[in-house]
């Protein structure tokens, strides 16, 4: 693996702050990571859905379809952050820092995991509630 030491806390915080664009995956696996490239498109489509809802109101069905993509992308990134932060240091170093000096996660990784859990849980519940509300409203309109 090329590059320097990969820090567990850095990966966790990247997933928390900019994970919706796959930057945590690129940090760990480089720009050739296929999973990392799956993050930007749903994120941008979800942001376009938010913009559409702001411009056209809550009755815009295209926005209904696009906004949950942002939620799913965010939840997936935060789940990655949780996994990174909870990975034991020995296993982390064996996977990402082979032949490098050991890197300990410490409190920054723990705090990142707590924030990922809080924000991820809230986002997951909000995405499910939004999608269910829009689905049932569409059923009434028919």
UniProtKB/TrEMBL annotation:
Pfam families (UniProt xref): TM2
Source taxon at top rank: Bacteria
Subcellular location: Membrane
Keyword field: Membrane, Transmembrane, Transmembrane helix
InterPro entries to which the protein is assigned, alphabetical: TM2
Domain TM2: 6-49
Ranges annotated as spanning the membrane: 9-28, 34-51, 63-86, 106-130
Recorded topology in the membrane: Multi-pass membrane protein
Protein name per the record: NINE protein
Organism annotation: Pelomonas margarita
């Amino acid at each position: 693996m090329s590059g320097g030491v990969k820090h567990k806390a850095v990966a966790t915080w990247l997933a928390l702050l900019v994970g919706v664009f796959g930057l945590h995956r690129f940090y760990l696996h480089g720009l050739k990571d296929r999973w990392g490239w799956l993050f930007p498109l749903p994120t941008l489509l979800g942001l376009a859905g938010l913009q559409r809802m702001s411009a056209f109101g809550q009755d815009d069905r295209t926005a209904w379809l696009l906004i949950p993509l942002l939620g799913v992308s965010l939840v997936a990134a935060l789940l990655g952050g949780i996994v990174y932060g909870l990975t034991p240091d020995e296993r982390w170093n064996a996977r990402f820092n082979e032949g490098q000096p050991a890197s300990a996660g410490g409190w920054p990784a723990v705090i990142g995991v707590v924030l990922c859990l809080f924000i991820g849980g809230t986002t997951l519940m909000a995405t499910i509630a939004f999608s269910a509300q829009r689905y049932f409203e569409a059923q009434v309109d028919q």
